[in-house]
Amino acid sequence: MSEKNEEKNIPAAAAAAPKRKIGGLGRGLNALIEGSYEKKSERLGLVPHPVNSVGLIPVGQIQANPYQPRTHFDQDALQELAESIKIQGIIQPVTVRQTGTNSYQLISGERRLQASKLAGLDAIPAYIRKADDQQMLEMALIENIQRENLNAIEIALSYQRLVSECNLKQEELGDRVGKNRSTVTNYLRLLKLPPDIQIGLRDSVISMGHARALINIDSMDQQLALFRRIVAEELSVRRVEQLVRTGGAADTEKKPTQPATPAVPPAELKRAERHLSERFGSRVLVKPGPQGRGEIKIVFDSVEDMQRILHILQPA
């Protein structure tokens, strides 16, 4: 049968049906969301969505989370995520709260929202839930701690904000983020280190192990001195722990230098050499050393000449 005849045998209803366009949302999630709404206007977020539901919301209606703990996102990683979204769609909806008619505020999913904009999506799936400001902060912080590749200082700062701004005790905080209390405490102690060391940890100049060893030093000057030595000598964590345990960290402090001994003027050295050469009848060299030390060298030409010099040195 020719292709032309095949076309004639296509049912009229099927031929008349418009082709369904699959957007950048991913087939499964796209179908799930479209199937839950009867009106296109509701799917596109033109009317309020009920709380605890998932709907398509235009990206222009979603405001950034003012409590977002991260201010910097790797642009290369965002672009990679955007390319993935173009192919696979949004795998997991972002989470928002409704702040007004056709107005939403992001709770979690900042990277997904930014990547969706880069991918050119007009609307993205979002889970709408009810949350006050404190819940917004708590959810944003916990989501970042659990999902993002945060450095140790960012984690510590997030823990501190949860304790101070969300009024969580360390035990409660551990339960919320799935960590035991000692782990939470170790992170919070990092914030007691001098700023230079915190920056070094943030920028991966030193590791978490180095920082935990430095915490056990009481003196800030000793902490900074050992930190500089770690960087300069590329000390291992084990070596740093050994220095702290044996008290060797104190040796890294800059010790006061002894006052420099005034140098002997060259003219005076020459005068001394000339005087001694005349005294012994041989060549005499005067060599100054560090901190006032030095040596006097008498040159002899033979055994007899040496005996003559020794005779001169004998007391009268």
UniProtKB/TrEMBL annotation:
Domain ParB-like N-terminal: 55-145
GO CC term (a single one): chromosome
Keywords tagged on the record: Chromosome partition, DNA-binding
SMART domains referenced in this protein's UniProt entry, alphabetically: ParB
Pfam family, one: ParB_N
Gene Ontology BP terms: chromosome segregation
Residue ranges, annotated region (Disordered): 246-267
Transmembrane segments: none
MF term (GO), any: DNA binding
Family: Belongs to the ParB family.
Cross-referenced NCBIfam families: parB_part
Protein name: ParB/RepB/Spo0J family partition protein
Lineage: Bacteria, Pseudomonadati, Bacteroidota, Cytophagia, Cytophagales
